[in-house]
Design a protein that fits this description.
Strands 2-1-5-4-3 form a 5-stranded antiparallel beta sheet, with helices on both faces. A 5-stranded mixed beta sheet has the order 7-9-10-12-11. Strands 6-8 form a two-stranded antiparallel sheet. It has 2 domains: 62-160, Beta-Lactamase (2-Layer Sandwich), CATH 3.30.450.20; 198-428, Heat Shock Protein 90 (2-Layer Sandwich), CATH 3.30.565.10. The termini are far apart. The protein is of the alpha+beta class. The protein is built from 8 helices and 12 strands. The chain is rod-shaped and about 200 Å long. It binds adenosine-5'-triphosphate and magnesium ion. Magnesium ion binds at residues 332, 335-336, 394, 398.
Length: 429
């Protein structure tokens, strides 16, 4: 607002007309309003910038993933709060550090290659590295990076994928275990089956030993009579010695008698011993022969307890398998019948055995008249260790062992039913 007279050189202020002053004042007022408007505009622009900055800062700093800018050598130029907290360090201390320091040794080469790719390619690159935070906690980071147009810096986003990696690793581990499990399943099943078989064998062996103990009773019964007779023969020799009846012939006769008895007793022992021998190989055998042999072993003992044992055979009864084991099964069933008959004090106790051929099977039934098995325990009869006898009387292995022998070694069946008067065991092979 300079006037030609107001050049600011003379220093003397010419007096202005009132009109002039008013104009000047008005101009100043207009100018002031303009300035105020401009100022207002600037303030709005500044406010806008501040809002944008705030937004940007908020977006950058409080983003849920870590952001950082690296220069070509991998030095951190900038990082957001998420990145700093990921690396367990204050943000101010991150700037100027090499990012490599946070990468674990075994992943450094991966990171270097990634950084080189980022600067070389101008497109987004990614990699996964193991990071070690300031307080030595390790985590897995998914890195995504792209270089700036200047080519001097790159921007990188870092996400903590430790949990994901752990689940992936756990999944892979599970898959591995599963496939190992599958691979070894067959061998483990075979081993388990073999272990079970060995356990069964042990049980059978135990039962056999127990049955042998029972056999001592039978031997005692078989021996009682010949032993008495032998005693008489020996006494007679001495008695007759001083009488005229004593002669060489008499002595010879008595010696022969004694020897026969001794041979008989010895044969009995052999029979018992043979009976408990294990069969090595399956063989053809005559079921009737085994039934007769088995009955012969227990007959005198059973008769002493007033139990009758009878055998009906309808002709030939051929079978293939293990004859001695078959005999032990018969013995188990007979012994069980004897035990119930005595326990229940049955009059006219009777055990009848029948053998016959049915189709291509040889069947043997063993029936007693002791009243049968209580329905409630029918299902458990063949379980190992199932017994209704006292602990000193039964182990509960007899029938389990018998079923195992018949069904697993000889491919037959062993079943039981109540007849109304007693129990009937049926063996088919
Ligand atoms: N003929 C039968 N009549 C009634 N019950 C029977 C007969 N045979 C077996 N049982 C029942 O079956 C149970 C199991 O018989 P098993 O031969 O397996 O064992 P146990 O005779 O008790 O003992 P172990 O034979 O080992 O000495 C017996 O305790 C008995 O209760
Ligand atoms: Mg028994």
């Amino acid at each position: 607002m300079k006037t030609p007279k107001d050049d600011g050189v003379t220093g003397a202020r010419p007096s202005r007309s009132k009109q002039e002053t008013q104009r000047l004042f008005h101009e100043l007022e207009v100018h002031q309003i303009e300035l105020e408007l401009q100022n207002e505009e600037l303030r709005t622009v500044r406010d806008n910038i501040e809002t944008v900055l705030e937004k940007y800062t908020d977006l950058y700093d409080f983003a849920p993933i870590g952001y950082l800018s690296l220069d070509r050598t991998g030095i951190i130029r900038n990082a957001n709060i998420a990145c700093a907290s990921l690396l367990g360090i204050e943000r101010s201390r991150l700037q100027g550090r090499s990012f490599n320091l946070f990468v674990t040794d075994e992943y450094r080469h991966i990171f270097s290659e990634f950084l080189a790719e980022v600067f070389a390619s101008q497109t987004k690159q990614s990699c996964q590295v193991k990071l070690s935070s300031e307080n030595n906690e390790t985590l897995f980071g998914q890195m995504e990076g792209i270089s700036l147009a200047s080519g001097l810096e790159c921007r990188i986003a870092v996400m903590d994928i430790t949990e994901r990696r752990r689940s992936e690793e756990a999944l892979a581990e599970n898959r591995r275990e599963l496939s190992d499990l599958n691979k070894t399943l067959e061998t483990r099943i075979l081993r388990a089956v073999e272990e079970l078989r060995l356990k069964d064998q042990m049980l059978i062996q135990q039962a056999r030993m127990a049955a042998m103990g029972d056999m001592i009773n039978n031997i005692a019964h078989q021996w009682r009579q010949p032993l008495n007779t032998l005693g008489l023969v020996v006494q007679q020799t001495m008695l007759f010695h001083d009488t005229p009846k004593f002669s060489r012939d008499f002595l010879q006769n008595n010696t022969d008698k004694a020897m026969k008895l001794i041979q008989h007793m010895s044969a009995t022992i052999d029979d018992f011993r043979d009976f408990f021998k294990s069969d090595k190989e399956p063989a053809q055998f005559d079921v009737n022969e085994i039934l007769e042999k088995t009955i012969a072993l227990i007959e005198q003992n059973f008769q002493h307890q007033k139990i009758n044992v009878i055998l009906h055979s309808d002709g030939e009864a051929p079978a293939t398998g293990y004859p001695n084991e078959y005999g032990q099964v018969i013995l188990n069933i007979l012994t069980n019948a004897r035990d119930v008959l005595i326990e229940r004090n049955i009059d006219h106790a009777l055990i009848s055995l029948r053998s016959y051929v049915e189709g291509d099977k040889t069947v043997v039934t063993i029936t007693d008249n002791a009243g049968g098995v209580d329905e409630a325990i029918m299902d458990r009869l063949f379980e190992p260790y199932f017994t209704t006898k006292g602990p000193d009387k039964g182990t509960g292995i007899g029938l389990f062992m018998s079923k195992t022998i018949i069904e697993q070694s000889m491919g037959g069946t062993l079943t039981m039913r109540n007849t109304g008067t007693g129990a009937e065991f049926r063996i088919e092979i």
